[in-house]
Design a protein that fits this description.
Number of strands: 4
Strand order of the largest sheet: 2-1-3-4
Structural class: alpha/beta
Radius of gyration: 23 Å
Helix content: 55-70%
Strand content: 5-15%
Order of helices and strands: HHHHEHEHEHEHH
Largest sheet: 4 strands, parallel
Shape: elongated
């Protein structure tokens, strides 16, 4: 938990820096390289209000969750959602609260600059620090598909997993004394062994679950009709929840503002 809080504090600190840089980028793009003090002072109140509002939106959209820092469709989707809602909420804020500046082009430039800087920073952050936050993963049983998953993990370190070895049995893994976050079994294991792994705080997955959770795809040989139907349904549900979430946040902001 302490590590999780430290990650969020680091993200908050750099998200704040990105907002300040986006503010300066907006002023330079709008008014030129030599921005006068009166122009900066005129924007200060609006910047502070937008900063507080947009940080809340970033938090609501799970951008402080380390899982969404990984370069993936979900992380980009959440970032686009957050920036879109931030832009709309900014216009609403300017509509209900009178600042000495007008939004329009300024607000659009600020949102675009902030979005680009956030995207760049989150990718840099993940590339630099991902190795410190990797989940340790081990395999029980030397199945061919397990080897495929291990190769994928090795080729894509940004996924955030550290391969700790393949073991013939749960007893062999336990004997090493290693702390393993995820145990993937490619062969049948006893319920007592499963209970032991869970007691050791390990998350236990079968091969199909591991492929789905780590790579977000499942080999055809591991797929059944029920799973295929569920994947299609989940995609439709994800899109629906994505749209509903955006609408709910915008409506909530309308009420608060």
């Amino acid at each position: 938990k302490i590590l999780t809080h430290m990650r969020k504090i680091i993200l908050f600190f750099f998200f704040s820096i990105m907002f300040v840089l986006a503010g300066f980028a907006m002023l330079i793009l709008r008014f030129g390289i030599h921005v006068s003090s009166p122009i900066i002072e005129a924007h200060i109140q609006a910047f502070i209000a937008l900063y507080v509002l947009w940080q809340i939106i970033l938090y609501i959209c799970n951008l402080y969750d380390f899982e969404f820092i990984k370069p993936s469709f979900e992380s980009i989707r959440n970032l686009l959602l957050a920036i879109s809602i931030s832009l709309v909420s900014g216009f609403l804020l300017f509509y209900f609260v009178h600042f000495p500046v007008t939004p329009k082009t300024n607000l659009l430039l600020l949102a675009l600059s902030y979005g680009v800087l956030l995207f760049a920073w989150r990718n840099i952050y993940f590339s630099i620090f991902a190795h410190n936050f990797k989940k340790h993963i081990a395999f029980i049983g030397n199945a061919p598909l397990a080897n495929t998953l291990i190769e994928e993990i090795g080729r894509h370190p940004h996924l955030g997993y550290a391969y700790e070895g393949t073991y013939e049995s749960v007893a062999e893994l336990i004997a090493t004394g290693r702390t393993i976050d995820i145990v993937v079994y490619g062969k049948q294991i006893e319920s007592s062994e499963l209970a032991h792994l869970i007691a050791n705080q390990s998350h236990v997955l079968d091969l199909r679950q591991a492929f789905q959770n780590i790579l977000h795809r499942v080999p055809v040989v591991l797929m059944n009709d029920t799973l295929a139907l569920r994947i299609v349904e989940n995609r439709d549900t994800d899109l629906y929840e994505f749209l509903v979430r955006g609408i709910e946040i915008i409506l909530a902001l309308c009420i608060l503002v």
